[in-house]
């Protein structure tokens, strides 16, 4: 298996994994019949307003999904590497913000780690 074929399979696996992380939120919405604290637009949750108002001021990253951050990072990275192999900027450019916003989220999880280690500072993935 050459590198390009490996990267294409990695892109497929990571993309399916990234979009499946939202299934737990859908299950939670159906059970509670409430959409509060659900990330409908996961790629927009690292916008400056959310970071400044919700996370930096409160020091609480519970509004961010750690599994989604990991999935977004691996998906975007695999697509960028695939695009670089093909020398295709139409694949590389749209996936760079995913890497950038994931790195911001990782920093936020590190910076605002739970003071009380008995309760995690992020939403755990419940299946």
TrEMBL record:
Keyword Magnesium tagged: no
Membrane topology (UniProt): Multi-pass membrane protein
Pfam families: MtN3_slv
Keyword Repeat: yes
InterPro entries referenced in this protein's UniProt entry, alphabetically: SWEET, SWEET_rpt
Gene Ontology terms: cellular component: Golgi membrane; plasma membrane
Molecular function per GO: sugar transmembrane transporter activity
Principal subcellular localization: membrane
Subcellular location: Cell membrane; Golgi apparatus membrane
Keywords: Cell membrane, Golgi apparatus, Membrane, Repeat, Sugar transport, Transmembrane, Transmembrane helix, Transport
Residues spanning the membrane: 6-24, 64-84, 90-110
Domain of life: Eukaryota
Family: Belongs to the SWEET sugar transporter family.
Name of the protein: Sugar transporter SWEET1
Lineage start: Eukaryota, Metazoa, Chordata, Craniata, Vertebrata
């Amino acid at each position: 298996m050459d590198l390009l074929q490996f990267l294409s399979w990695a892109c497929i696996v990571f993309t399916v994994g990234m979009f499946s992380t939202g299934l737990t939120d859908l299950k939670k919405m159906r059970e509670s019949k409430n959409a509060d604290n659900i990330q409908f637009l996961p790629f927009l949750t690292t916008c400056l307003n959310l970071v400044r108002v919700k996370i930096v001021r409160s020091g609480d990253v519970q509004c961010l999904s750690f599994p989604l951050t990991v999935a977004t990072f691996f998906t975007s990275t695999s697509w960028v590497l695939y695009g670089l192999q093909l020398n295709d900027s139409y694949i590389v450019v749209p996936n760079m913000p995913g890497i950038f916003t994931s790195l911001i989220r990782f920093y936020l999880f590190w910076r605002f780690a739970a003071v009380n280690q008995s309760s995690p500072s992020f939403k755990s993935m419940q299946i």
